[in-house]
Design brief:
Strand content: under 5%
Helix content: 40-55%
Number of domains: 2
GO molecular function: DNA binding; zinc ion binding
Largest sheet: none
Shape: elongated
Number of helices: 16
Radius of gyration: 26 Å
Number of strands: 0
Length: about 375
């Protein structure tokens, strides 16, 4: 991946990593790139985009939206970070992806189509000006609504996403596919460790979301991009609660009504619930196992009691208006009431998931 020269006030992350001796690392094996086409392309479902780069530029020249220098610089860095054909060949390897329950994105075809449609921009002598105009075209496409007409054929649907109709939503989805693939890869890709590359791609996905929101783009593509971004972020940063000890708060704080303790327990309960929901959806072990944690559910008290409670007061159940189990005795439905209930349901989900995964493991052992 080449890197554009940066201005002094730019904070964009560079993506070249030197070798151990400070020199470029040439030890990573290079894969022979082979052009991959989807099955439906072989069936001539996709028509080749014949519109040239110059024609695309002329068709958008009056529709270029105002873009700040900072956003333009980030956009150029995103386009310059598109994987090389060799790297994309590695990232496009078949792999199990539990988050592919949407319309399939053939990343190799889309990237190849992009490079062929805007060949001048991706040529060796394309230069920064070509990337600038290409970025402007993508900004212009993103500023326009996605047609809400019923699309009957796959060819028409993919035409809305690729070639001269490329949008930042599509670019973000491409990087989301590559990020998920990198996280399941054990070999270096373009001289980068998969985890480092996934972090870089996550930053690009977040930038694409910001570009779309800045253009008020609201469509199913953006929703799916946000969904995938949350998945990648959860995989990369999901161990944060454990790192700061939210899962191992001391047992002595169970009856504590201090706002600092309750804030930690409320936050951990919310994260615990989401973790179990993600585990059930993906069919994987949870990141936060209750067997290794000591954090109790938050007390079912109102925010008024929480805010006005003084540290010098004794946490009496009558004063807090809760029973021995921590539920409120007022018959009210507080936010913590729902949070505690969902926490209990999440614990049941965790136990069911453990049984299901254990049976699955035993079945695999028997088949072996």
């Amino acid at each position: 991946m080449s890197t554009l020269p940066k201005e002094s006030d730019t904070t964009t992350v560079q993506i070249h990593r030197p070798g151990r001796d400070g020199q470029p690392n040439h030890d990573v094996p290079t894969r022979q790139w082979r052009e991959r086409r989807p099955q439906y392309a072989a069936n001539r479902c996709f028509a080749r985009v014949d519109e040239t780069y110059e024609t695309a530029r002329e068709s958008h020249v009056h529709a270029f939206p105002a873009v700040s220098n900072e956003d333009l610089d980030i956009a150029l860095d995103i386009l310059d970070s598109l994987p090389s054909p060799e790297a994309e060949c590695i990232l496009a390897k078949p792999h199990i992806n539990p988050f592919d329950g949407w319309i399939p994105l053939e990343t190799t075809w889309l990237l190849t189509e992009l490079r062929s449609t805007f060949a001048a921009a991706f040529g060796c002598d394309g230069g920064r000006e070509r990337f600038t105009e290409l970025a402007s075209i993508i900004f212009s496409n993103t500023a326009q609504r996605v047609p809400h007409t019923q699309v009957d054929s796959a060819e028409d649907w993919y035409t809305l996403l690729s070639g001269t109709s490329l949008r930042w939503e599509t670019v973000g989805l491409l990087f989301s596919s590559w990020a998920l693939a990198a996280l399941q890869n054990k070999e270096d890709i373009d001289q980068y460790r998969p985890h480092i590359l996934a972090l870089r791609f996550l930053n690009i996905m977040e930038s694409c979301i910001r570009f779309c929101r800045g253009n008020r783009a609201h469509n199913v593509l953006l929703v799916y991009l946000i969904y995938r971004t949350s998945i990648v972020s959860s995989i990369l940063h999901g161990t944060g609660p454990c790192a700061i000890g939210l899962d191992t708060l001391p047992v002595t704080s169970i009856r504590s009504c201090c706002i600092s303790k309750q804030s930690e327990r409320r936050l951990f309960a919310a994260i615990y619930v989401l973790d179990k929901a993600a585990s059930v959806s993906a069919g994987r072990p949870p990141l936060l196992a209750s067997s290794r944690g000591t954090t109790a559910l938050p007390l079912d008290i109102s925010n008024t009691v929480l805010v006005h409670f003084e540290a010098s007061q004794k946490p009496d159940v009558d004063l807090l208006r809760i029973d021995d189990q921590g539920w409120n005795t007022d018959g009210e439905m507080y936010a913590t009431t729902s949070l505690r209930a969902r926490g209990l349901i999440a614990h049941i989900r965790e136990e069911l998931l453990a049984i299901a995964l254990n049976k699955r493991q035993n079945l695999l052992l028997e088949l072996a």
